[in-house]
Design goal:
Elements lengths: L2 H57 L4 E12 L6 E11 L5 E4 L5 E8 L5 E9 L1 E3 L8 E3 L1 E4 L4 E10 L3 E13 L15 E11 L8 E2 L6 E2 L1
Antiparallel strand pairs: 1-2, 1-13, 2-9, 3-8, 3-10, 4-5, 4-10, 6-7, 10-11, 11-12
C-alpha cells in the first residue's frame, strides 16, 4: 500500500472515530437533558400539587359549634336583682384552626314581658363580656379572644345581670375566623369573619326558690 493510500485510510478511520465520538456525546447530552427535564417536571408537579392542597385547605370554611350547657341563678339576699351564670362550650368541628372573638356583648340577657297588644318584648336587657382571672391580682380581666385547634372543645363562663323572676332570653354571640395552622395568625386572604349566635329561654324563679330552669336544650349551633 502506497503512502497516499495509507493516508486516506488513516483519514477515513479518523473521520469515522470522530463521527462515533460525536454521536456518543450527543446521545449522552440528550440523555442528561432528558433526565434533568424530567426531574424538573417532577419538582414542578410536586410544588403545584402542594400549592393546590394548601389552597383547598385554606378555602375550607372553619366551623364553630356553641352549646349552652349550664345555667345557674344567684340572688343577693335582700335585693331583687341577681345574676345568671351561663356555662358555654365552644367546639371547633371544622378542618381549620379558628379564632373566637369575644366582645362586650358576648352574652346578652333580657326579660320577656307582654307589651301593648299582648306582644312580647324585651326589657331589662344586660350585655356583658367574657372574663378570666389573671395570674396575679383579684380583678377579673376581659377575655377578648380564644384560639381553637381542630377538634378542640373549651368551656367559658359568662355572667349576666337579671332584674328578678321571669322568663329571660339568653343569647351568646361571638365572631370567629380561620387562622393559619402553623403561625396561628388570621389568614388575610381567607379570613372571612363569621357571626355565630346561640339562644336559650331561661325561667328565673327568684330568691331561695332553687336553680334557674332552662328550656330543653336544642342541638348545638353549627354556623
Amino acid at each position: 500500500m502506497t503512502v497516499p493510500e495509507q493516508v486516506e485510510v488513516i483519514k477515513g478511520l479518523a473521520e469515522t472515530a470522530a463521527i462515533v465520538v460525536g454521536g456518543l456525546w450527543a446521545a449522552w447530552t440528550f440523555h442528561k437533558l432528558q433526565r434533568a427535564r424530567a426531574s424538573e417536571a417532577d419538582v414542578n408537579r410536586a410544588l403545584a400539587e402542594t400549592r393546590e392542597s394548601e389552597r383547598r385547605l385554606l378555602a375550607q370554611e372553619p366551623n364553630l359549634e356553641i352549646d349552652i350547657t349550664d345555667v345557674a341563678e344567684y340572688h343577693v339576699p335582700g335585693l331583687e336583682q341577681g345574676c345568671l351564670g351561663i356555662g358555654v362550650q365552644f367546639a371547633n368541628t371544622g378542618l381549620r384552626n379558628l379564632e373566637v372573638i369575644l366582645d362586650g356583648s358576648a352574652l346578652s340577657v333580657g326579660r320577656l314581658v307582654l307589651g301593648d297588644r299582648r306582644r312580647l318584648r324585651l326589657t331589662d336587657i344586660h350585655r356583658s363580656a367574657a372574663h378570666y382571672l389573671p395570674e396575679t391580682g383579684p380583678a377579673l380581666q376581659q377575655m377578648t379572644s380564644r384560639v381553637f385547634r381542630v377538634g378542640q372543645r373549651r368551656r367559658v363562663l359568662l355572667i349576666g345581670r337579671i332584674a328578678g323572676p321571669g322568663l329571660y332570653l339568653v343569647q351568646v354571640q361571638v365572631l370567629y375566623r380561620g387562622i393559619e395552622f402553623e403561625v396561628e395568625t388570621p389568614a388575610e386572604d381567607f379570613g372571612v369573619v363569621v357571626r355565630a349566635v346561640e339562644q336559650r329561654l331561661v325561667r328565673v324563679v327568684g330568691e331561695d326558690a332553687g336553680p334557674a330552669v332552662a328550656e330543653p336544650p336544642s342541638p348545638p349551633s353549627a354556623r
